[in-house]
Amino acid sequence: MSIERDGLLDMLAALKENKIQYIIVLSTNRLWRSDLVKVLLHRELKKNNVDIRAIDRPNYSIYTQNPNEIFVNGMFELLDVHEQLEMALKLKRGRLQKAKGGGYAGGGAPFGYECLRGGKKLYVNATEAKAVQRVFQLKQLMPDMTLKMYRSLWKQKGTRAGRERTLMLCL
To answer: Is residue 156 a contact partner of residue 149, using CB atoms and an 8 Å limit?
Structure first.
């Protein structure tokens, strides 16, 4: 597994080069977002004799041996995970609600549409829209045709390879 966070990786590299005693963070949940990253980070910090000071929990230490502090730290970490999951669920609900209302919730624009970079509105791509309409016409004419058959037919017509999978999802 790799940690894909440049700032965190730069900090870990600096630990080996400099005499750093503490890493100061607003909250420990800003350092790790998964248990595996937490374990890897703790191992690296202990290897370099570095501790964490969290502003929201002044007594936090990765070296504590006090069972009560370990229990409290674990409970706070569980609350952090719960908060992250709640936030993700709320965002998902919002995206689904927006999509149900016909809004564009982000991501790659479906075949037949385009979106300006950073934009929140979909615009019809006239060329691709004709192709989508043709697929629906074929579906009405030949309802027993499978997706694989549509795909081979589409390839014969010369559809761009990168968008054909998205097109098949439009059926």
So the answer is: no
Are 39 and 46 spatial neighbours (Cβ–Cβ below 8 Å)? no
Q: How far apart are CA 78 and CA 86, in angstroms?
A: 12
Q: How confident is the model over 1-39, as pLDDT tens digits?
A: 466 778 888 888 888 788 889 989 898 887 887 778 888
Sequence letter at residue 77:
E
pLDDT of 153 above 90: no
SS3 category, 5: coil
pLDDT bucket at 161, cuts 50 / 70 / 90: very low
Report the alpha-carbon distance of residue 112 to residue 114 in Å, rounded.
7
Report the share of the chain in percent with pLDDT over 70: 89
159 token code pair? 């559809």
**Contacting residues for 108 by C-beta, under 8 A, at least 6 apart:** 166
Q: What is the rounded distance in angstroms from the CA atom of residue 2 to the CA atom of residue 107?
A: 24
CB atoms within 10 A of CB 49: 11
Instruction: Using CA atoms of 104, 109, 114, 118 in order, give the dihedral in degrees to the nearest 10.
Output: 70
